[in-house]
């Protein structure tokens, strides 16, 4: 059974009805702090929480919109809080139809309206005639006359009146078997058959909700006496209690024991189960381990001079021989470990379905760790529906923007939008940032990256590679992505960034003329951040040049043809116009035009606009580019 739609009627900042669709896997509520994201999760969780918890029951005093509370108090009515729409799965539908007849339900969807008194109204659409025809046929008493009589039956008394109209034992016995369908124990006005289906089939299979936020983290030091006496804070108590239940340990037995080895063994067995899943996704630091220590601490009360005994469980995290209490590890690690305690608790309940409600998961995690968390949630969503809130762009996959619901607070009410149509820039920022990050990652970065100086290099190398490929000559490997760095001085920064992502990197650069830039590159090579063999300069491919740019890989004639076509505002330049004492053609052109620098992008762009083939170029140009591609290809694994 899946949750398909939620309509929040009245709850905290939601003064106006807000409806949104729920995805079968993951639904994401995105918005600023205090926009109403958490309130939406709370309202959903309170409709069918997985355990008896006062925090997850509707309260007029705390939950009803404040500006309307006085009027609702005076009315004396029990207001409706939220309407949840569910879809019955095919397996459950088959069970219902097997007992009550094919087509008994006119819709696979049904709604549950939860009121502030925490009661529910169910709306299940049934075809009474299909039920009657199925049952009377199975009983061997079917007739149009009997069907007409039973359609009017809405209670046990009505059924008894019909039975009394028959003297044939076959009819009497058969009709009495239908009594269980007409008891209407919930006293519904819409009919006993719908009530029976809801009570027997739908309610037991309706998903339960598990809500989790950062406040449910496990305390690193647990007093068993305080746990037994319910003296811990509410959320600490709940998580600690869940931990001992997961370990199947009776805390009362600890209080009576002198030796704690058996309990520690149980705790460590539980920790091993949690750790298997934790470290499958926790990639930030895999050199961690959890340790437990139970001790009996004795002290004397100074005032009464009485002996005090306290049993304490210490949870510590060990890394490279050094252990720290759980609370002194990162908040992100604590969140992950504590969530798995909660999650494993519900995993052991094989009789129920669950929907996970996660408030700001991964809030304290590094961006790369949030990516691990996303992977974890994707795997969980194969078995559980998940609704989570976030304002982090790293918790939003641009490939699945259909999952996003934006939440915005206005003067009248918090608003939830199914489509990404909010005009508020603060609400949209995480989505824009996520999309921008994804574009940056995928447009210019892959497993194998060739770093070049600028976009013009990208255009020229791509175009020349295609021309060589069409001639069945060596071209740039298809699995290599050309990454323009935005300038020679930024190459070192790009190398450092890509190195942290375990990517292959090769550099193809203009000759350094700036000592500072060369020093940075030499430092990266010296520190083995990039191997010297992975850095190539264009002068390496030209025997007579000590310094060269990409443009020098062309013969001077070929490049001047591109330049002249790209700059019609200048008189065409010929080789005779260039200073032969200067090697680099870019400097030669600048000197001839008496300018500091021309736009290198325009000749590169002209190359693509002209759509030339190999016949446009001299053999030396093609040979030079093929030499470049052969060398670059060999530098990648």
UniProtKB/TrEMBL annotation:
Endonuclease GajA/Old nuclease/RecF-like AAA domain location: 1-396
Domain OLD protein-like TOPRIM: 446-510
Superkingdom to which the source organism belongs: Bacteria
Protein name as it appears in the record: AAA family ATPase
């Amino acid at each position: 059974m899946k949750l398909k739609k939620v309509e929040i009627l009245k709850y905290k900042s939601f003064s106006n009805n807000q409806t949104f669709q729920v995805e079968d896997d993951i639904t994401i509520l995105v918005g600023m702090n205090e926009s109403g994201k958490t309130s939406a999760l709370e309202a959903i969780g309170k409709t069918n929480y997985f355990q008896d918890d006062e925090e997850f029951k509707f309260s007029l005093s705390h939950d009803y919109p404040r500006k309307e509370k006085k009027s609702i108090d005076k009315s004396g009515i029990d207001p409706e809080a939220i309407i949840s729409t569910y879809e019955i799965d095919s397996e459950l539908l088959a069970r219902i139809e097997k007992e009550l007849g094919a087509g008994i339900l006119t819709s696979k969807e049904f709604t549950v309206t939860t009121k502030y008194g925490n009661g529910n109204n169910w709306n299940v659409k049934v075809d009474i005639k299909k039920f009657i025809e199925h049952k009377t046929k199975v009983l061997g008493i079917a007739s149009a006359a009997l069907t007409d009589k039973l359609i009017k039956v809405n209670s046990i008394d009505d059924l008894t009146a019909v039975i009394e109209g028959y003297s044939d034992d076959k009819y009497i016995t058969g009709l009495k078997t239908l009594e269980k369908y007409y008891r209407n124990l919930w006293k519904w006005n819409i009919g006993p058959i719908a009530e029976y289906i809801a009570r027997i089939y739908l309610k037991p299979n309706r998903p339960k909700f598990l809500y989790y936020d950062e406040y449910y983290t496990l305390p690193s030091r647990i007093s068993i006496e305080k746990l037994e006496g319910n003296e811990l804070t509410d959320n600490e108590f709940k998580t600690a209690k869940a931990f001992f239940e997961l370990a199947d340990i009776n805390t009362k037995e600890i209080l009576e024991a002198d030796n704690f080895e058996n309990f520690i063994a149980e705790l460590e067995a539980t920790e091993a189960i949690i750790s298997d899943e934790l470290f499958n996704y926790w990639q930030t630091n895999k050199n961690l381990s959890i340790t437990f220590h139970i001790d009996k601490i004795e002290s004397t009360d100074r005032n009464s001079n009485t002996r005090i005994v306290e049993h304490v469980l210490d949870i510590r995290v060990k890394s490279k021989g050094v252990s720290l209490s759980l609370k002194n590890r990162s908040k992100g690690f604590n969140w992950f470990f504590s969530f798995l305690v909660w999650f494993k608790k519900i995993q052991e309940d094989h009789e129920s379905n669950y929907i996970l409600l996660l408030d700001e998961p991964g809030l304290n995690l590094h961006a790369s760790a949030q990516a691990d968390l996303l992977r974890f949630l994707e795997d969980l969503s194969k078995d559980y529906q998940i609704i989570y809130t976030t304002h982090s762009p790293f918790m939003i996959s641009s490939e699945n923007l259909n999952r996003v619901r934006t939440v915005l607070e206005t003067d009248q009410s918090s608003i939830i939008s199914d489509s990404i149509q909010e005009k508020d820039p603060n609400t949209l920022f995480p989505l824009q940032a996520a999309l921008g990050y994804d574009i940056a990652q995928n447009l210019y970065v892959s497993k194998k990256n060739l770093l070049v100086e600028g976009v013009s290099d990208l255009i020229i190398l791509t175009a020349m590679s295609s021309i060589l490929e069409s001639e069945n000559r060596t071209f740039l490997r298809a699995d290599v992505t050309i990454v323009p760095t935005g300038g020679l001085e930024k190459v070192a920064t790009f190398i450092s960034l890509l190195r942290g992502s375990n990517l292959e990197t090769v550099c193809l650069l203009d000759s350094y003329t700036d000592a500072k830039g060369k020093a940075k590159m030499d430092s990266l090579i010296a520190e083995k951040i990039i191997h010297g063999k992975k850095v190539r300069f264009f002068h390496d491919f030209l025997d007579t040049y000590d310094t060269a740019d990409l443009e020098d890989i062309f013969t001077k004639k070929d490049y001047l043809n591109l330049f002249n076509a790209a700059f019609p505002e200048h008189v065409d330049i010929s080789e005779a116009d260039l200073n032969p004492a200067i090697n680099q053609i870019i400097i030669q052109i600048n000197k001839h035009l008496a300018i500091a620098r021309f736009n290198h992008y325009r000749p590169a762009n002209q190359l693509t606009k002209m759509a030339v083939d190999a016949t446009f170029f001299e053999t030396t140009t093609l040979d030079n580019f093929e030499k470049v591609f052969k060398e670059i290809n060999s530098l990648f694994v």
